[in-house]
Amino acid sequence: MDGAVTLPLREIPTEGGPVLHMVRQGSPLFSGFGEMYFSEVEAGAVKGWKRHSMQTQLFAVPVGSLKVVLFDARTSSPTAGVREEVVLGRPENYRLLRIPPGVWYAFGAHGEGVALVANLADLPHDPTESEKLPLAGPLAPCHWGDCQTGE
To answer: Which of 77, 116, 119, 137 could form a disulfide with 133 if both were Cys (CB 3.0 to 4.6 A apart)?
Structure first.
């Protein structure tokens, strides 16, 4: 999807548990700092649909596994109308996902445990620059539990 990119992340083994990189200045996915927060997603829970008009988000999942569904509703995008699914989490899919402005997204815990999402946004939270739709709305061509996970 145009502008939605993943990048593998480093895990550095250390005694007592690994160090998990997320992002650093100079990374090809880093566009600036607005705020960073964590979102916990309980097993079976799904959050979304949401899109930002100006904000770019970087997602990493250091705990658990998360399925993220993206939908490109940007009419001027070369991937307009494309729906894409990405799985993030350790150990197989520890990577960074960039979600550009204008792309709808929803996400849910993938598997049986809790997923912890680290979200680095390039702008501070502003409730006037985002919008939400119901999960079962027109963006979901299938029921969440019936969607096949793609890479």
So the answer is: 137
Q: What b/e sequence results for 30-40 when a residue is b if at least 16 CB atoms lie within 10 Å of its CB, and e otherwise? A: bbeebeeeeee
Q: What percent of the chain has pLDDT over 90?
A: 68
User: What's the rounded Cα separation, in Å, for the pair 138 and 7?
Assistant: 29
Residues 6+ apart with CB under 8 A from 79: 1, 2, 72
Tell me what percent of the residues of the chain surpass a pLDDT of 70: 92
DSSP string, 45-108: -EEEEEEESS--EEEEEEESEEEEEEEE--TTSTTTT-EEEEEEETTTB-EEEEE-TTEEEEEE
pLDDT digits (tens, 9 = 90+) for 26-76: 888 888 899 999 999 999 889 989 999 999 999 999 999 999 999 999 999
C-alpha dist (Å) from residue 27 to 48, 54, 55: 27, 20, 17
Q: Calculate the average pLDDT of the chain.
A: 89
